[in-house]
Amino acid sequence: MLRSPSRFVRSWVTAALAGSLLVGCGSSTEPADGKAAAAGPKTDVTVEPIKATRALTDAGGVKVSLDREPERIVCLFALCDDILTELGIVPAATNSALLAHPDFLGEERAKKVDVIPGGFIAPEVEAILSHKPDLVIGLGDTHGKLAPALKDATTFWPMQPETWQDSVGYLRDVAALTGRTAEGEKAEKTFRTKLAEAERTRSDKTALVIYGSDENFGVATPETDVGASLFPKLADYPWKSRGVEGSYSLEEILAADVDVLFVETLSFGEADGRLSEKLAKNPLWGKIPAVRTGDVHEVNSEVWAKGRGTRSLGLVLDEATAALR
């Protein structure tokens, strides 16, 4: 079996297959003895006012300070693109394909946004700085290494979201720094309201979200995956993280009687087929209840796996609740 740091795998763009290796035959999770993970407290739809500021400390303890409202923001991962879209801001440059989605800028408008060369793992510093950014937002455990090279030229903000609450917090922080407080409050309210409604109609079906590029797949878990952190509120989601050394097999998934299965195909370069089609070569795949009943849903990985902001998560809620009825 191949082993992989599941967190980094989905730390975007699930690092190249040759380097980051998805967990063979599974991921870093284990079932919670057949019982649904706790849904947690009911979602509060109250939105506290956002106050504009030039300096703040985010939930991860990162201090961000700007001389003025940032006008040119470079996004090195998709949460940044999601947040800026919610706030009505177009990034100066990006490192993801999320903006081309029709619920974001759409293909034509997205083509006008420059793409930083070098790929997700190693975006080129010179290309980033060529856009004269006031602010560069990246994923901490992937882009933190760029901080020294960016230090004297711009402000670098490493984010590290793991739950939907983290994503809401980052939305609020960016809204405060950009002065888009009303837009931030509206986006948060829309998301919280949608999540609360989905929670009221919670399904008793067992759900599972898997991701990967081939037979070596991973399982998205609520503790370490933003999208998966929604699922205990939507359905029975009995999967827990076991850290980077864990693995999860089709035999164990079969034993859990999964009713609805969501599949994120992550490609590295040219797409070469869906993950569900590759897994179908395993005779155990066809025995999973969701497969037998045709309740396997290939989803858009740009939104489900990489977006992680309130707009992307709203789309995840829409699609997940429809499938779980």
Automatic annotation (TrEMBL):
The keyword Membrane does not apply. This is ABC transporter substrate-binding protein. Belongs to the bacterial solute-binding protein 8 family. Residues 72-325 form the Fe/B12 periplasmic-binding domain. The keyword Membrane does not apply. It is found in: Cell envelope. Its main location: other. InterPro entries: ABC_transptr_periplasmic_BD (IPR002491), Bact_iron-sidero_bind (IPR051313). Keywords: Signal, Transport. Residues 1-18 form the signal peptide.
